[in-house]
Amino acid sequence: MKKEKQEIFFVCKECGYESLKWLGKCPECGSWNSFKEFNPNLKKNKITDFTSEVKKLNEISYNDKENRIITGISEFDRIMGGGVVFGSVVLVGGEPGVGKSTLMLQIAEKIASTKNVAAENYKVLYVSAEESLQQIKLRSERLNIKNNNIFVISETSLENIVKVIEEIFPDVVIIDSIQTINSDFISNPQGSVAQIRGITAEVIKLAKTKNITVFILGHITKEGDIAGPKLLEHMVDTVLYFESDTTQNYRILRVYKNRFGSTSEIGIFQMNYNGLKEVANPSEFFIQHSENLVGTVTTCIVEGTRPILTQIQALLTKSYFPQPRRVVSGIDYNRAMLLISVLEKYTGVSLVYEDVYLNIVSGLKTKETTIDLAVVLALYSSHKNIIVDSKCVYLGEIGLNGEIRAISFINERINEIYKLGYKKVFIPYENKKNINSNILEQKNLDLIFIKTIKEIDKIF
Fold first, then answer.
1. Which of 34, 234, 294, 418 has the fewest CB atoms within 10 Å distance of its CB?
2. Angle between helices 333-347 and 372-384 (to 10 degrees)
3. Is the pLDDT of residue 226 over 70?
4. Mean pLDDT, the chain, as a whole number?
């Protein structure tokens, strides 16, 4: 007699691991008492159907301009690769209160004010599972958002949300947030990995089938990952993270994944009472003091394809501890310790009895090695109490032998530096062959090429 296939199995609510029998401890994530019974028969009633027509690749037509929505928020459109692609699913993550809902309302207002190919305004559905309709209205009035093409629903049931989408058929759907949505077809509790994964899969099917653009808002954990854990990142088309510093009023929208544009791009916004305002020139935003100071050195980093000028600050003081303190902010700690060692070995200075405080101004963070020269000069300036010329910019990666190594995007960096009125730039000698001839011919721009950190006295 043929044995019937087992219908019931168990799923870990923490990581989604599946087992044919109940287990006390999950072998995948190590969680105890995390297995819940799961009945696949419930999935026979599909929430959404997914059908795709088979076509030859050469027969598929595509117009990039007609398949993107231009929001008019230049910072957002740029990091998205030129606008929002129809039928795409975008995941927006960030800490509570960072401004995700505010940004989405502003984007909804811009999209709903834009006309499509048929000269009709796009229709936007804002699904809030955390706030009431009155709370959303209160925020929209503060942001001065008034648009008849924005529809709002306060709902946590995926089935009800799908019904509303099929009734009004919007062009864009915003779900705030994915952790608070639940489905009756998934037996796991609300907010569990299985719920989030199943709901996101259904939302993606809906987006691809109906050609609807979907924005999914997600909270992040203490470790900085989108709760789920990072499962959703592999499912969606684009991943955006909202970053902020608790002491600053600016927000950085960073791209970690984009199937329709470049990654590692950033958009910079400033938070005020009327919402988020884009920062058109971040270099002027981060360079707030132009006077000559001790231990303050100007450099240029590249985020994605955008060069941004910023300042490195160092403070060295006499240490009163057996082991001197090393406090680093915005820069990789191990990289900073390496640069301190190189500085001591090849310049003769000794920092063994000094506390070192090193940071990037305005709370900016970077892993670029282009700032190596600026970091070393800031340390040297503070140690020797030498004033640094604020009109000079210093670029270069430093090797373990003290050599100044070539950097990338040299022409883009120099153009940004020249555009902001700086007259002197110290760059690696190895980059001389990569610089465009029109830059070398600029009479108002002095390019100084350096080979090794041993020339540090000549720099000052």
1. 234
2. 60
3. no
4. 86
